[in-house]
Design a protein that fits this description.
single chain; two-stranded antiparallel sheet; 251 residues; 6 helices; globular; 37% strand; alpha+beta
Length: 251
């Protein structure tokens, strides 16, 4: 029996991204190996995941045995906040000072570490401009003083960063393949919090893209694994229908 995935709670952001990757010639909500996938296009599965990447770990592990999968993860590079009343009418609109960073994805990617890097999995970071609708209905988070997030809408896709093979991860994280590094170095280079830097270091170690080589000043020291390592072999660069470059396995 196919495992149903409810679309009732899907946001407008999710639906818009699904329509974008579906294009004119793709298929949506296709049953494959007991799961419904968001989009199937040109022999590639596209899964739109706006949060909780760990929830799709089992699904991914099943799909990638026979299909290449692109996991699309939106990053709010620009966010507009619109307050609406109980009739759904906009009361006011402002631009949020908060700006998403692509490095935030590693808060989620650590849960997919056992599957990565894998030539069948591409993580597509979609840097988007979104509008977030909020309603002061008293049902939302205490952090927002009861204000609920009603929906998120896609306004534009500004750019996309593809992560598949180890070299793409290394370049994205600005790491020198010949220079050892610590979590403090990651924090400084990427201007991220110490907590996020630790998660990135953990992810790299669990995926075997880096290795622990000792300590310096009581800090763990890592180095990027050599290009000749087995996990780097078999990747071939190809051009996608939407102009993006992806890495596919070429055994």
């Amino acid at each position: 029996m196919d495992k149903q995935i409810s679309t009732y709670n899907e946001s407008a952001l999710h639906d818009s991204l699904k329509a974008y990757y579906k294009g004119d010639d793709g298929l949506s909500e296709v049953a494959i190996k007991g799961y419904y996938v968001d989009v199937l296009r040109d022999g590639t599965i596209y899964e739109i995941q706006t949060a909780n990447l760990g929830a799709m770990k089992r699904k991914l592990s099943m799909l990638i045995t026979d299909w290449p999968v692109v996991v699309v993860y939106p990053i709010p590079a620009v966010k507009w906040i619109t307050r609406i009343d109980d009739q759904g009418k906009g009361v006011y609109r402002r631009r949020s000072p908060k700006k998403g960073t692509g490095y935030d994805v590693f808060k989620e990617l650590i849960y997919l570490a056992p599957l990565l890097p894998n030539p069948a999995i591409t993580i597509a970071l979609a840097f988007v401009e979104v509008e977030e609708e909020r309603c002061d209905d008293g049902k939302g988070s205490w952090r927002r003083k009861g204000v609920s997030i009603v929906d998120r809408k896609l306004l534009s896709i500004q750019s996309t960063q593809m992560l598949s093979d180890p070299e793409e991860y290394r370049s994205f994280l600005q790491l020198d393949e010949k220079s050892p590094f610590t979590t403090a170095d990651i924090k400084r280079k990427l201007s991220v919090s110490a907590s996020l830097a630790s998660r990135i270091a953990y992810f790299l170690r669990k995926t075997q893209m880096s290795e622990f080589i000792g300590k310096t000043e009581r800090k763990h020291l890592y180095r990027w694994r050599a290009e000749s390592d087995p996990i780097r072999s078999g990747f071939e660069t190809v051009k996608g229908e939407r102009g993006e470059t992806r890495k596919l396995y070429n055994a």
